[in-house]
Amino acid sequence: MSFDSEVPSEFIPRSGEWVRELQRLLERAGYWSQERSEEYDDRVESAVKLFQGGYGLEVDGVPNSATWAALAPLAEGGADPGGHGSLFKSRGAGHSVALRTAR
Q1: Structural domain of residue 47, as residue ranges?
Q2: Is there a domain that residue 56 lies in?
Q3: Contact indicator for 46, 32 with CB cutoff of 8 Å
Q4: DSSP 18-53
Q5: Most buried among 19, 23, 84, 102, using CB within 10 Å?
Q6: How many angstroms separate the Cα of 79 from the Cα of each of 7, 31, 72?
Q7: What angle do CA 17, 81, 68 make, to 5 degrees?
Q8: Type and span of the H or E element at 86
Q9: Model pTM greater than 0.70?
Q10: CATH number, domain at 30?
Q11: Is residue 1 one of the residues assigned to a domain?
């Protein structure tokens, strides 16, 4: 998977194996705790926004090149390279949402 290509958001496919990989990396960073799927839905977008905010990136929910670059160290087995906080879960709207707290 390439982490350096920029794709306009209107051309990002809403499903595919890339979504499962995104969820895996978000999980390693502590931002995803749900079953993985291949659908880029509101839950994935929310997790991306939380990750982007926690890493000081533009918060837009689009997994752009800056987001992939921040996730890239996790692809090789790293765990939360920025040490951005501890994970807790909140339940709402019938599903679990991973949230971060500052240290």
Answers
A1: 14-76+84-101
A2: yes
A3: no
A4: HHHHHHHHHHHHTS--SPP-SB--HHHHHHHHHHHH
A5: 23
A6: 26, 12, 11
A7: 35
A8: strand 86-92
A9: no
A10: 1.10.101.10
A11: no
